[in-house]
Amino acid sequence: MKEIERFILHFAHEFDKLLIKLLPKNQYSSKLYNAMKYSINVGGKRLRPLFLIEIAKIFKVKKNMALRAAAAIELIHCYSLVHDDLPAMDDDDMRRGHMTCHKKFDDATAILVGDAFQSLAFEILSDKRTHPNPEVRCLLINELSQASGALGMVGGQMLDLVAEKKKLSLQEILVLQKLKTGELFRFSCIAGPILSEEKNLKNFDEFAHNLGLAFQIKDDLLDIEGDEKKMGKKLNKDASRGKSTLISFFGKENAKKKSNDLINNSKKILRPYGKQAKRIIDLTNFVITRNN
User: What is the pLDDT of residues 148-162, one digit of tens each?
Assistant: First the structure.
């Protein structure tokens, strides 16, 4: 295992402990709490919070504040996955080698788990422990609500649903991917500067654009080329549903070249930060070299 993979694995293990500590122990419904805890314990690389924390280090953000913002973005991501797996959406039975929430519990519980994760994310951001300045907290809430709502992730999911069996233009595919995947990555990349009260977000805005698109291309490639056991879920879903992706538009080899170009552009943006950006560069490379 490469050093960066060990680092990600260790971070994910420790970060999951934090997420579980942040769950409200529901005195009214142990089933809801257990389903939320189960959905977190299914695991994941936690790349969004990891990018957020590593970028926050460049801006000398206090660790606890960065961790809380990181928890908020990951809770939004977890909510989206729980809802995505539902029969009315992607209809998946397995995620990361485990039963999906609605299969382990039931559809209604899975819906409520997603709702609870979303609410908890904003509860965390609004708390003074995330940042003493209310303007900073409001900006974080505003950015995450936009990233996850109708002009962000939810909007991208809607475009994805209605795009089945349709041939999309390149611009339509790029918009879909930007909303569906890119906007949450954008929050992960700009939250650190916001926590430091930095006003100029341009560099990490551009970095996030490249990173999010490269990440989605790799996801689409893994859906075609991945190992189902390593992925822990069904593959070839895009092709079976007639979805237009950058792979179907460019072809595999050109899509791989595109993702490499995006990652190289991302690393150029990090150069001025010198040694402080080494870990972020390693994570950036990992985005397109991962095998699950």
Answer: 999 999 999 999 999
89-143 tens-digit pLDDT: 999 999 998 999 999 999 999 999 999 999 999 999 999 999 999 999 999 999 9
Provide CB contacts within 8 A for 146, sequence distance 6+: 152, 183
DSSP conformation class of 163: T
Q: For residues 223 and 238, give the distance between their C-alpha atoms in angstroms, rounded to a whole number.
A: 7
Tell me the Ramachandran region of residue 91: left when phi exceeds 0, alpha when psi lies from -120 to 50, beta otherwise.
left
Alpha helices (H) in 163-201, listed in sequence order? 170-177, 183-195
Amino acid at residue number 107 = D
CB 35 within 8 A of CB 105: yes
Q: How does the average pLDDT of the chain come out, rounded?
A: 94
pLDDT digits (tens, 9 = 90+) for 211-232: 999 999 999 999 888 777 766 6
Q: Walk me through the domains of the chain, giving residue ranges and CATH numbers.
A: 3-289 (1.10.600.10)
pTM of the model: 0.95
Residue identified by tokens 């006003």 is 199
Residue with tokens 């979805």, as numbered in its chain: 243
Angle at CA of residue 140, ends 290 and 217, nearest 5°? 25
Distance CA 10, CA 276 (A): 20
Q: What is the DSSP letter of 104?
A: H
**Tokens coding 162:** 């209605």
Residues 6+ apart with CB under 8 A from 155: 149, 179
- Per-residue b/e over 81-120, b at no fewer than 16 CB within 10 Å? bbbbbbeeebebebbeebebbbbbbeeebbbbbbebbbeb
